[in-house]
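BUG: 3D viewer hangs when loading the predicted structure for this chain

Environment: internal workstation, default settings.
Expected: structure renders.
Actual: progress bar stalls at 90%.

Input used:
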Amino acid sequence: MTAKVLVVDDVPVIRKILEAKLVAEFFEVIVAGSGQEAIEKAHAEQPDIVLLDVMMPDINGFEVCRRLKADPLTSHIPVVMITGLDQPSDRVAGLEAGADDFLSKPTNDVALFARVRNLVRLKTMSDELRLREVAGLSLGLGATADPVRDAAALQHAAILLVEEDAAVIEVVRQTLGRQLHLTVATNDAAARQAVQDRDWDLAIISLALPGQEGLRLCAYLRSSERLRQMPVLVLNRAGDDKTLLRAFDLGVNDYVARPIEKAELEARVKSQIRRKSYQDRLRQTMQMTVQLALVDPLTGLYNRRYLDSHMTAHDRAGEGRDAGTLAVMMLDIDHFKSINDRFGHAAGDAVLRQFAHRIRMNVRGIDLAARYGGEEFIIILPQTSADEARMIAERLVRVTANEPFQIGDGRELSVTVSIGVAVRALGEAAEQAVGRADAALYRSKAEGRDRVTVAP
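Structure tokens produced before the viewer hung:
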């Protein structure tokens, strides 16, 4: 996977060496020689990842990282801090500044390329969600960064540790157990049962489990549609680059080398949980945006766009099969214009909402109800005969007429509905069945309303 990499270092020789290494791996490289230049180029170039030196003359790397992460235009860009400082406190300071990873000079090429490719992969996965968030924000959905929400995510995070070494388990408990909810599984079977029983905010998996169980578990999590979004941090023996590379190829998010440095483990765990909270918010915004695109906001039923797509899909699925088991029901509220004229549009909206609720309460889970337009509604009923469709339609006529509608200020209004029903004939498109149901609806209107007509 290629990407655009911003290399930031005040020493020209180091910039050239990193640039040459990355170009040889087919990355596009841009460079900056100071903290201020790095911030400006991050805004202008929108790189996929930033490799950032800590020790610079104008603005140190920690401050550059904080500024990039605080800016909505650059906060999504992964930052790897590269420095000659090798104390655990320095790594923790970088992670707490918002860095996604921390490498010491001289850089290990295996670790460098693994980190870059992994972080670019994760960024690519979230970029589409970010685009959806932009659309959602334009519709009033989504939210900006919320420290209170992020703190709550950390406080309530559920972490699964998969490790058999009692000493390592105790170190992780001492590090995380005071603040986070930690559960331990000592083997692959127990871990697989745990991930089926509940959802987790993070899995910490030892790569030292016998028989490569750790790698197999990573592969299992990434192959599951339900589990593949769960962050995975692995515990790896220092110097075992081969196993670590295989883990990154399987899609793990991060690693901590053994023996474990407690402060680094805590910082990396919190970084993963914050990222998951951010991506969960992006997905929630995307789901709300999709819902707005497909659901009628007044009634909560599907809209015409979704209905058309659904019928097209139904036609494709029914090719070569018996298509006569699909029933279509067209519904129209009687004299609806007079309701708006006499009582106002607010009363008309109240009638539409309550009528939609009665539809939902009186159709099956497999049926699809949509607002067709104005006061017209449509219900698609799969695996339904003409007699069954008539029975459901007549029930809707009764529940509409028998209970008055509330239109505000304590006022009640009696409302009736006319319905036309058609069953799709063999070889007939769903849209043609809709047309016949619509014709049957007009016959119900012509014959006095408040009734059901089934198309021949």
